[in-house]
Amino acid sequence: VQFVESGGGLVQPGGSLRLSCVASGFAFSSYGMSWYRQAPGKERELVAGISISSAGRNTNFLDSVKGRFTISRDDVKNTVFLQMNSLKFEDTAVYYCNAGYSRPALGDYWGKGTLVTVSS
To answer: Is the dihedral of CA 96, 99, 103, 109 positive or negative?
Structure first.
């Protein structure tokens, strides 16, 4: 099992970034997928989740990112995306993906994450 996150970077408040996570080693299309983040000195938290395609690709979001972030998936490319708009200082964190809709279904496996820094 492997998760490879990318797309992070330095962005000004109000800016946008699109994160990608390529997953391998498991039946991607059979799992919900989710994004997590961990800010310095804080615990990892669930940011967004998306269910499997056959279940309608339902989504859920952390309250603080609702209306600003969207999550999507490409089952052909085994990739999950996180589009982040109207970024705020408090979105600064390392972002990770994992399987599962609302909790890490493959929690023994984590990628290196991708760092998002929101700064002026």
So the answer is: negative
Condensed to tens digits (0 to 9), the pLDDT of residues 48-90 reads: 999 998 888 999 999 999 999 999 999 999 999 999 999 999 9
Query: Which tokens belong to 49?
Result: 């989740």
Residue in the structure block whose two tokens are 């002026």: 120
Q: Residues near 80 by Cβ (< 8 Å), separated by ≥ 6?
A: 20, 21, 23, 33, 34, 35, 50, 71, 72, 73, 74, 97
CA atoms within 13 A on the CB side of 115: 4
Cα–Cα–Cα angle for 20, 1, 28, nearest 5°? 60
**What per-residue confidence (pLDDT) applies to 8?**
98
